[in-house]
Every structure is written in structure tokens, then in C-alpha cells.
Design brief:
- By secondary structure, the chain is α+β, with helices and mostly antiparallel strands.
- The protein has a single domain, classed as outer membrane lipoprotein receptor (LolB), chain A, CATH 2.50.20.
- It has helices at 2-13, 25-33, 113-120, 123-133, 159-173, 239-244, and strands spanning 39-52, 55-68, 73-80, 83-90, 93-97, 105-108, 139-143, 146-154, 179-192, 198-211, 214-227, 246-247.
- A twelve-stranded mixed β-sheet has the order 7-8-9-10-11-1-2-3-4-5-6-12.
- The longest helix is centred in the C-terminal third of the chain and has 15 residues, at 159-173.
- It is globular.
């Protein structure tokens, strides 16, 4: 379950055109990477289906997240069928509360590798930098003033295409000890506005992953919309959480 939750959280933060004016894919990505982003807000939905050894799990959730880069502070809320999961993360301290907890928990961010990575990585820039490595796999379209980058893979994916999917899963799950035994489908689309700011990201992945001797089938659908680039109002961890959180 921990692996699934981390996969969803990261993949959710995945983060993550056309040629009407002859601009290339490389130029679009370079312009996006070079954008100075100090804050952003996003909303999205996540649907997960996992089958393992004749057992099945489904989960749907609504995601809300915002962050400010300097000084770094992120707030994340996941609404699930079991209740609400909330996190405040800065470079030193993370506060979290899940549906099965009756009070907020306080941990050192650096003590949990996944949290430390979230506090230190610029996920949007990292995603665009990854696009540079796999740029030939993406199609470029133009829709009005928007640029759209798409990739669509299936069971006939070659080694480079499988490497792209594995690269994304490694970032999502924080786990490198797995093998993609079968890729049924992978669809990924990101939309940027005329200023090369990310507007939305949609992703669907259907794959079988082998962890040790265990093979699980994952189907994950994600839809995320971004807003308020460099315009997120300053926020902080509420005093009642700071004063009453239990240290772990």
C-alpha cells in the first residue's frame, strides 16, 4: 500500500504543441525549462486499479496542491473514499494527517527519502528536462494558442519507449527494484499556453510490474490542471497544527 500511495502522489505531481509558427519541440521545452517558477497551484483527479495474486484494489481521489519555492513550502490534500490526507512540507519539517490519525504528526523531512525528494526537487523543471532525453517519442500539435506534446505507447514499445515509462515510474514510486514485464498502454499529454506555462497534464498507464517474485498490474489515470503560476498567496502551517502535532 505504501508503494501505491507514493506512486500516486508522485505521479500526480508529474508532473507534467504545435508548429503554426515553425517553433520546434526542442524550443518549446527549452522555453518551458527556462521559466522562472516560484509558485504554482494545481487540482486533479487520480484513479487507480491494482490487481495482484487474484486480489483487486481500486482507489479514486481528488488532489489539491500548492507550493512556494522560496522559502519552500508545499501543501497537499488528497480526498479519498477513506477520508482526507493532508501534508505540509518544508525543507526541515513535514506535518501530516491521514484518515486513521486523530492528530497531526510531525516528522523531519530529511528522515523520509520521498519527502526529502519532494522538498528538494523542482518537479516541473525536472519533467521538462526529461522530455529533452525522449523528445523523439513525442508528437507536437497546436490548438489555438496552446502547444500540446503527446506520447502514445502500447505492447510493441521498443527499449527506449520502455525506458521512458520506467524512468517515470522510478520518479513516481521512488523504487528502482522492479521490472516492466508487460506494457499494455501508456498515454501522456501535456498542454502549455502561449507563454510556455503548463496548463494541464493527462496520463493513463496500464502495465505489469515485477517486484521480486511478485507481479502486479497497475492501471492509473491522472488528470491535472495548473493555475496561479507565480501568483500563489503566501501561506504557512497553521499555528494549531504546529503547536499540537505529535513528533514521530
Amino acid at each position: 500500500m505504501k508503494r501505491i500511495v507514493l506512486y500516486v502522489v508522485w505521479l500526480s505531481i508529474l508532473i507534467t504543441a504545435g508548429c503554426g509558427n515553425k517553433i520546434s519541440k526542442e524550443e518549446i521545452i527549452t522555453n518551458a525549462v527556462n521559466k522562472d517558477i516560484n509558485s504554482v497551484e494545481l487540482n486533479g483527479t487520480v484513479h487507480v486499479k491494482v490487481s495482484s495474486q487474484n486480489q483487486f484494489m481500486t482507489q479514486s481521489m481528488d488532489l489539491h496542491m500548492k507550493f512556494i519555492q522560496e522559502p519552500f513550502l508545499s501543501y497537499m490534500k488528497l480526498n479519498t473514499i477513506d477520508g482526507k490526507l493532508e501534508l505540509y512540507i518544508d525543507e526541515d519539517t513535514t506535518y501530516m494527517k491521514s484518515p486513521d490519525m486523530n492528530q497531526w504528526l510531525k516528522v523531519q523531512t530529511k528522515s523520509v527519502p520521498e519527502l526529502a525528494a519532494m522538498a528538494s526537487d523542482n518537479s516541473l523543471k525536472k519533467e521538462f528536462e526529461r522530455l529533452h532525453d525522449f523528445i523523439n517519442l513525442y508528437e507536437l500539435e497546436k490548438a489555438g494558442d496552446d502547444y500540446i506534446l503527446k506520447v502514445k505507447l502500447n505492447e510493441s514499445a521498443d527499449d527506449q519507449e520502455i525506458e521512458l515509462v520506467k524512468n517515470i515510474i522510478v520518479d513516481a514510486a521512488g523504487d528502482t527494484d522492479f521490472e516492466i514485464t508487460n506494457l499494455n498502454s501508456f498515454d501522456y499529454e501535456i498542454t502549455l499556453d502561449k507563454n510556455y506555462l503548463l496548463k494541464s497534464a493527462e496520463s493513463t498507464i496500464d502495465t505489469e510490474l515485477k517486484f521480486g517474485e511478485k507481479i502486479d498490474n497497475f492501471i492509473v489515470e491522472i488528470n491535472v490542471n495548473y493555475k496561479n503560476f507565480n501568483n500563489v498567496k503566501a501561506f504557512s502551517v497553521p499555528d494549531n497544527i504546529v503547536n499540537n502535532a505529535r513528533t514521530y
